[in-house]
Specification:
0% strand; Hypothetical protein af1432; globular; mainly alpha
Length: 261
């Protein structure tokens, strides 16, 4: 898809930790494994102290954080930090704006899922955050064309980024993101959610399908497609949806800063 541009890799510690989590390894051992990578530890502590993780007081000890969070939230935390480390910094596009939208989707997906399908809350958070993770990769792999395509889609609500990518390249960011997730051996459900986040009913959690309607840089008045989907498909009332959007917007800024830092 992108020629000879090299796929970013996860750190060995992140890979080993995710393996331990899938094998239901001892949580104390998992914390010990994580602390072998100081950079990953710092990023994880920044992320876990963001409002999105709802810690009541600042956590400065990773072992303590791991013991508090539980397996699914630790996996989400590791994936968030590992992807933030692995993806290349953006050169032509606004990286902070990109991660703010991604964090907003993650926080919205978590809260929509908690309201409609609580068991999928953390899965939805992670998939909402990572659904567009191919965009920084494509910006670096196709610097001559991709920034202009992204700008075109962002400037006109009637233009779909996915359609623009398909017209230009014959593939889109969802497909590339799924291949990246497969290459990193991420959970199968997450691979499917990334691949299908623009295709309703094709395997992504409902909350992930909903937040895929949030365009990069969208303001609250531009969330009509999200509101409509949540009301019609998930039967979430306007009042409840207003609370979800307000809470997610309060959480997403610190999460985005922890990733983009």
């Amino acid at each position: 898809m992108v020629g000879d541009y090299e796929l970013p890799t996860f750190s060995a510690v992140a890979v080993q930790t995710l393996t331990l989590l899938r094998e239901e390894g001892d949580m104390a051992l998992i914390a010990e494994q994580l602390m072998a990578d100081p950079g990953l530890t710092v990023r994880m502590l920044r992320t876990v102290n963001s409002a999105a993780f709802g810690m009541r007081k600042e956590v400065t000890n990773l072992q303590y954080a791991v013991s508090l969070l539980g397996r699914s939230r630790v996996e989400s935390l590791v994936l968030t930090a590992a992807v933030g480390d692995a993806l290349p910094p953006m050169r032509s596009l606004d990286g902070r704006a990109f991660w703010h939208t991604s964090a907003r989707r993650a926080c919205l997906a978590k809260r929509i899922a908690a309201h409609a399908h609580p068991a999928s809350s953390m899965e939805s958070f992670t998939a909402g955050l990572l659904q567009d993770m191919a965009i920084p990769f494509l910006e670096r792999a196709r610097p001559d064309r991709y920034p202009a395509l992204f700008a075109e889609a962002q400037s006109d609500p009637a233009v779909s980024l996915r359609e623009v990518e398909q017209d230009a390249f014959g593939f889109d960011h969802a497909q590339v993101g799924a291949v990246m997730a497969e290459s990193w051996e991420l959970p199968e459900g997450l691979v499917t959610a990334i691949a299908a986040h623009h295709q309703d009913g094709q395997g992504a959690p409902h909350a992930v399908e909903a937040v895929a309607r949030v365009r990069h840089g969208a303001t609250d008045p531009e969330l009509g497609a999200l509101r409509s989907h949540c009301q019609q498909v998930l039967s979430i009332s306007e009042g409840a949806l207003g609370d979800i959007i307000e809470s997610a917007d309060q959480e997403c800024t610190s999460l985005a800063e922890s990733i983009a830092a």
